[in-house]
Design brief:
This protein is about 30% helix and about 5% strand. It is mainly alpha-helical. It has a two-stranded antiparallel ribbon. It is flat.
Length: about 130
């Protein structure tokens, strides 16, 4: 019988000749489905396969499909927006920390005189004009 000692529950077990470590209960693994819902069962016994009839989306073979009014707006809007997004991504400014750090280091080294100033380094261009014969 369990006895309450302070805040602990003390249970006395009867003495046995067997050690508790030798007693093992083997429970086989339980296979559980991914879903907890029961599988749907139907009393329908016929096949759900529709054999090919040549009709695609309810249009008989040989007839041309008539476009609906929203289709062109959707197609040009989607692909136009996609093209504008690609162009905007290609021309976006470089805001990476590596680019900023490289420019900042170059600026500081130019101020200290370790690197020459690239603006002063350029030679003026003197184009030589040749006389046409």
């Amino acid at each position: 019988m369990p006895v309450l000692a302070g805040r602990r529950l003390v249970v006395s077990l009867p003495r046995t000749n067997r050690s508790l470590s030798l007693v093992r209960v083997h429970n086989p693994p339980v296979l559980r489905p991914f879903s907890s819902a029961l599988p749907q069962r139907s009393g329908d016994t016929h096949s759900h396969y529709d054999p090919p009839s040549g009709w695609l989306w309810g249009i008989p073979p040989g007839e041309k499909r008539e476009k609906e009014g929203w289709e062109n707006v959707w197609i040009y809007g989607f692909f136009g927006g996609l093209l504008m997004g690609v162009v905007a991504y290609a021309y976006k400014p470089d805001t990476s920390i590596q680019t900023w750090a490289l420019e900042e280091a170059r600026r500081r080294l130019e101020c200290e005189g370790i690197l020459p100033d690239p603006v002063q380094e350029k030679q003026p261009l003197n184009p030589v004009r040749q006389a046409s014969i």
